[in-house]
Design a protein that fits this description.
With about 110 residues, this protein is mostly beta strands. The protein is built from 1 helix and 9 strands; from the N terminus they run ββββββββαβ. Pfam families: Motile_Sperm.
């Protein structure tokens, strides 16, 4: 079974005092995906991007910024859905749609 998305590194490691963790999301398929990234803790984390398109065989950066706050058990969820090349607004494309899959990225905060 083909794994559509890979995240490198697969785990976010940040300090409770704050910091930045940079990752690459790889599309391992020949399909274009709309991506939506969610956090279990929106108070302490800023994600860039939240919505994007990922072209076949390409990769996109994901920057996770941690604000100062208490350490906790958190995760990121990267949802994906096949998207036609004619779509230009990833956030609008997601309205009313459900993902076809997801990748869970653990967050280790110390």
């Amino acid at each position: 079974m083909e794994v559509p998305l890979l995240v490198d590194p697969h785990t976010v490691e940040v300090k409770a005092s704050g910091g930045v963790s940079t990752h690459q999301i790889h599309n391992t398929t020949q399909k274009r995906f709309a991506i939506k990234i969610k956090s279990s803790n929106i108070k302490d984390y800023i994600l860039k991007p939240v919505y994007t398109f990922l072209e076949p065989g390409k990769q996109e950066p994901l920057v996770v910024t941690r604000k100062e706050g208490p350490a906790g058990k958190d995760k990121l969820v990267i949802e994906f859905l096949e998207a036609p090349a004619t779509e230009k607004d990833a956030q609008a494309f997601w309205k009313g749609k459900k993902s076809m899959g997801e990748v869970i990225v653990p967050v280790i905060c110390t």
